[in-house]
Amino acid sequence: MAENLLFVTLHDVHPMNRKKIEKQRETLAAWGVEKVGLLIIPFYHHKKSIVEDPSFCSWISSCASLGDETIVHGFYHDRMDRTDKLSELFWTRIYTQQEAEFLGIEKKVAFRRLVEAKKMFMSLRWSTRGFIAPGWLFDASLLEWLPEVGYAYTVAIDRIILFENPSTSSIFSFSHCWSNRSAWRRAASIVWNSWLKRGNILSKKRYVRVGLHPEDSDYPAIWKQVEKSIKDFLELGMHPETYGSLVKS
């Protein structure tokens, strides 16, 4: 395995976003990103299960056959019928728009969704090593539940977490990502990612992470920065990989 790795992930993959995701995947391939992580939502916003769309599933399978990794990304991705605690309001109302599905979730509900997602992926012959919570938001208890259900790793915004029996280890690497919901968020994101990229290059970071959302490519300033960043990392000799390659089994 190459020493310096670039992990590019496409978030919020589901049938309703397929057109944008497919175009982003083609663009990344043209830039030289040979493989990515596909963060797939099994039942987006309680509207449509992925198994209801055979064409979508077939496309994902073809991506996986070429090296992409399928990763469970929540189950519904939303917080329907949930009452937020005061301590959760910032994360559920400002940081996200009621998307933090696994923040403050009950164990029984979490287990049911984690198991159901894994069964769904297995029925499609997709990888089930990774689980990534929507918004990277979860409570510490999730780190105990995931290996019990059979997941081998997860990630937070600042680290990759590997469940290596009998211990858990972390690789610290803050993910590039862009917030595109408003003009000020987009402007702040460009400044933040410029600063983060500079730090990654100066510190010769071995593992660099880039997380992309479907709407990122709608904004030329953001997409231009994404392109420049990824091409610069590749020119520095970083090798595109998926998180699953870090799992020792």
TrEMBL record:
Q: Which GO terms describe its biological process?
A: carbohydrate metabolic process
Which domain of life does the UniProt lineage start with? Bacteria
Origin species: Methylacidiphilum kamchatkense Kam1
Concerning Gene3D superfamilies, the annotation shows: Glycoside hydrolase/deacetylase
Note the InterPro entries from the entry.
DUF2334, Glyco_hydro/deAcase_b/a-brl
Protein name per UniProt: DUF2334 domain-containing protein
Pfam families tied to this protein: DUF2334
